[in-house]
Specification:
single chain, 47 helices, elongated, repeat
Amino acid sequence: MQCGSAVYIRRLLWITAKLFVKRQPSFIHVTRIRPSIFIGKDWVTPLFSIGNKRRLEEDDMYQVLPDDASQGLGEELQRYWDKEVRMAAKELRMPKLTKAIVKCYGKPYAVLGIFSFTEVVKVIQPVFLGKLIQYFEKYDPDNMDALYEAFGYAAGISLSTVALTVLQIHYYYHVLRTGMKIRVAMCHMIYNKALCLSSAAMGRTTTGQIVNLLSNDVNRFDEVTTNLHYLWIAPLQAVVVISLLWYEIGPSCLAGVAVLLFLMPLQTMFGKLFGSLRSKTAVLTDSRIRTMNEVVSGIRIIKMYAWEKPFSALVNEVRREEISKIMSSSYLRGLNMVSFFAASKIIVFITFAVYVLLGNTISASRVFVAVSLYGVIKITVTLFFPQAIEKVFETIISIRRIKNFLLLDEIERPNIRFTLEEKKDASVEIKDLISISQRTCLPSHLPQSSLLSAILGELPHDKGVLRVKGQLTYASQQPWVFPGTIRSNILFGKELHPQKYEKVLRACALKRDMELLPDGDLTLIGDRGATLSGGQKARVNLARAVYQDADIYLLDDPLSAVDAEVGRHLFEQCICGILKNKPRILVTHQLQYLQAANQILVLKEGHVVARGTYSELQHSGVDFTSLLKRDEEEEPQTNNNHSVVKHAFSQNSISSHTSSMHSVKDGAEQLPVVAEESRSEGNIGASLYFKYLNAGASILVMLGTVLLSCPLPWEEAWENRVMTDKSPSLCSGLTLASVIFGFARSLLMFNVLVKAAQSLHNRMFNSILRTPVRFFDINPIGRILNRFSKDIGQLDSMLPNTFVDFSQSILQNIGVVVVAAAVMPWILIPVVPLLIIFLFLRRYFLQTSRDVKRLESTTQSPVFSHLSSSLQGLWTIRAFRAEERFQNTFDTYQDLHTESWFLFLVTSRWFALRLDGICAAFVTVTGKCSYLFQSGLEAGAVGLVLSYAVTLLGNFQWTIRQSAEMENMMTSVERVVEYSELESEAPWETQKRPPPEWPSQGLITFDWVNFSYSSDGPVVLKDIKAMFRPKEKVGIVGRTGAGKSSLASALFRLAEPEGRIYIDGVLTSEIGLHDLRQKMSIIPQDPVLFTGTMRKNLDPFHQHTDEDLWNALQEVQLKSVVEELPNKMETVLAESGSNFSVGQRQLVCLARAILRKNRILIIDEATANVDPRTDELIQKTIRDKFRECTVLTIAHRLNTIIDSDRILVLGAGMIQEFDEPYVLLQNQESALYRTVQQMGKAEAASLLESAKQVSTDTASQHTHSLNLT
């Protein structure tokens, strides 16, 4: 774990440094890369040397080329897009993203068409081959002129082979790099747009859709640029080839051309179908990834509610529909591939059948020239041309999706700079309503957050005027932290000033935390702040706002997540201390602080109902007074609010500061370390291939596939033997069999591989659902989503295509070698060493390329994590004007990924160059050998061998390259399989099942329980021995990090506790997790809603009637809210329920608990984000609806739990005291007594009176029960 943390810190520091310092490449200066890229000197070859000695690391990668940097590419394309948007607005039309891309990259990409002359070289080769075969047909040992001419043709074949090699290397390098540039630029634009989305626009998109755009849609640019030039090359080449064929065999060639003309429109139709299927698939993928994002974000709730099965069914259903579209696309790809392999056989058969029927005699030279020319046009017209059409239509769909996203509404952010005088007179003015120049408190849970969002500019206003004079800063209601160190979260881009920084840490009660954490303020915060407690996140969130040198501070309920003692410290030392000379707008439900406000604004249902000072509102007769507990003995209020605050708080100042830190150490010790993303090492083993194939088919189906593949090598031998024997009747039978076998084989293989992708996805998802929650604490959400988006995307489309292509190619090449060896056995002499060299080169290449591919996968995870984190903290980022800095960080992550992707590109070209060079040498050797053995060979045999030697140039090295590419793609299978075999928590059901009516009483017993979140982690609950009686209401209190939420985690077995926990005498560790968790209800600290209808959020199992659901909503005061929704209960909620306030989400969770009707209820800070009156209503509902239940309430508000039967006080993971509240408050040495005294005289007296009343009522009930007995 320390190693993982070190790597994570190193990456973080590297990224930070890269924002300011230019990194030097590992081996040579970056400007030397370009001239040496193809010959492999200086920098690529040393990388292979390192890769064959050890595993490659991120430090081994080269710095991204300046021309490939994300920022420059993105800004350039953004300029073209902005210009297109302006032009479209003038011309009253929709802007076209394609137009902007073409203007930006069209000219340089068009120039790359020069390298397309490779296709001209391919046409020349058959002509040279025909002339060479004619020499053998008319062989005359005495004709030296013919010999020299033949030498010239042989040299022409060799030289054209070399030219083909060089041109192809340059072509693929440049077009792939162009595709990469477009992809990187588009990612920059997508993220930049995400930072600018308005609140309304956020409701029309989801995190899943944006992740899918970044992981799958943009990849279409890599694919389309490779094949796009073939849209004009293929028709042009077809015209040239037809002309040459007419010259060779006359009108007979038109028969074969007719087949081509039939295939081209058919494949165009297939391309349109690809586009349609891609559009439908993308929508389903969006939905799946969105659901995955919600599952990972809310995994604790899903586990505690035992909702794994309905979510699994939901994801599996979306995945099933997605796979049905992918399967259709794969079948189309299969038909395209079969047409490629079968086209040559059909075309050659029809052409020469017509040729013979017209009374012509077949000669070897004519046969092999025609076959070779058809082979050239076959590759272009039946492979690259349909691929280009397919990719064009798929890219059009992706561009349309990206364009729709880029056209979403943006937030209007006026860039106003304030003078020093204006900053001194900072204020927020709302026309005809209120002008605020000091601190304001807002004691209502929904309208005040809307007011803050309006001030921030997040909520547009239709009428009135809102003026902000001064720079704003903001602390959100739900604390937001991003992956990084605690220091980087607090500084948030500002320079470190040690004295100011220390002052802020002390004011925000963080100093002691920093001293106890192993790495101090350099301790890493995990994704979504998983490594911090709720209170720690709230204080870091507040410290970030305080550290900013702003003019106006908007503080949205920062005290709700901390206990009363820490809250008082924050209010005194921070809000009324370090910020005392700044205007502050404070939202709080802690009513005891209202007396310190200069002004109080009372909002009700979005309307201002009162405004004034504390004393003014007390005497106004407004409903405000019913929110307060007045105490006649309280000291009289004076006009000097600050002096009152100082007097009221001074007696508790020092004790608050020290005691608030006392039990932080326990919370600090349980910080999980952010683990480095795992990367496998070494070869892709045969066992992984077996797991992959076995996931999609049984052994019998795999054997059937093998049997269908067996005829393929012999098809080549039979057909070519027939051609040399001039037996077209036999050829017709073989051609028909070849086509039938080809269709069956291709469709079956695609079926198996797509089913394998579906099966592996489902296994990975089920594994994710069953793994303990600690896995999600130490793995960022982007890392997990990367596997479900990028890696699964590879398994869905790219890998099956490559796998089938490789299997077809290798079998076809076996046939090529068998035919050549049968005609000329000595050809095995160069073939065997050639094969050995190829295999050695492949092994040498894969040692490095596998690591580069693994790096390419792992370096993309931070991109998704950064996106997810940014979307969660969008309001904070914009309030701090930090968009540019976050954009720079995104670009840095992109550059890191580009470095690995570019390395993969150039290493692949390095490999291709050597393969092509070896094949060129082989062609030359074969031609020379033909001359050496010319006296014993027929012209047909020579033509066969030479044509196959040329074929080997493309096919053989293509097969080796595809095998390498397939193995590189298998790293995605490797990553998916890794997550399919995660550590699993206890079974959901076991053979030992509790009785159906269990638990009937609700008796909970902790018998010397110790609890840790991992086997190697610290113990966060120590020697807990307690019994919670049936129907008892127990309050659980303790400072931040005391172990309150861990007690609930132990009860729900989120990790396995040591010791024994009994519920109604049943040992919980002996029953299944679902049997346990379904029998308890919890209202969590962080309320979680999921995308879907309100009905599904309340009742995912469909176990309750409409009447039950409406009654539950009525009980929690939400019935009127839901009735106002457009479709009432069937209204689909926004992602994560973002169209509901935090308090409303808590009420939905309470409604869930009411519906479950369990005997045991755990309430974990459920009312921290609601106002006191709503809190009172909730408590009344709980007392009424859960009268017969055992209720454990974890709370910071003591008035919430003071009427409990007993109160459990935790500290440092141990029980400090456990007794009736009145008994504890009578003891001045009690921890509860000391905490109550921190709340002021009035509140303390009120709490004591409430505790006394509960004690009296309990005694009366006990006496009454005894009398009845």
